[in-house]
Amino acid sequence: MENKPKHAVRSFLIELLVYSGLIIVYVLLVIRLLGTWLNGLFEHNRTHYAIAALLLIIGQGVALEMLTTLLLKLIRPRI
User: Fold this and answer.
1) pLDDT computed for residue 76 by the predictor
2) Nearest to 38 by CA among 22, 56, 24
3) Which residues contact 76 (CB under 8 A, 6 or more apart)?
4) 42-75 confidence digits (pLDDT tens)
5) Helix, strand, coil proportions of the chain in percent (round to 5)?
6) pLDDT digits (tens, 9 = 90+) for 6-28
7) What spatial distance separates the first Cα and last Cα of the chain, rounded to whole Å?
8) Cα-flanking dihedrals φ and ψ of residue 45, to 5°?
9) Domain assignment of residue 40, yes or no
10) Number of folded domains in the chain?
11) Angle at 16 between CA 62 and CA 30, to 5 degrees
12) Can you give the residue range of the structural domain that contains 41?
């Protein structure tokens, strides 16, 4: 029974580290690749900027969830 909480904490910490790394990479890529374009949208058409930002947020969430699920399926059998 004691092994289950340790396993849950270990899985949570692994997931937290994976999410942190992926979010850092994502933010740096968006700033590098889309920063100028997003800034232009913000200055000239805030409605399109808001839509683009929401789509980026949704896309990030879906991609991170899929990638984390895949990584945890690969990691869990080894733990």
Assistant:
1) 67
2) 56
3) 11
4) 999 999 999 999 998 899 889 888 887 887 787 7
5) 95, 0, 5
6) 777 887 887 788 788 888 888 88
7) 16
8) -150, 95
9) yes
10) 1
11) 50
12) 18-74
54 inside domain: yes
Quickly count helices (H) and strands (E) in the chain: 2, 0
Q: How long, in residues, is the chain?
A: 79
Within-domain flag for 37: yes
DSSP code, position 77: G
7 in a structural domain = no
Quickly count: other Cβ atoms within 10 Å of residue 18's Cβ.
16
Instruction: Return the closest-CA partner of residue 30 out of 10, 56, 50, 54.
Output: 56
pTM for the whole thing? 0.66
Look up residue 42 and give its amino acid: F
CB–CB of 47/2 below 8 Å? no
47 is written with which tokens? Answer: 């409605």
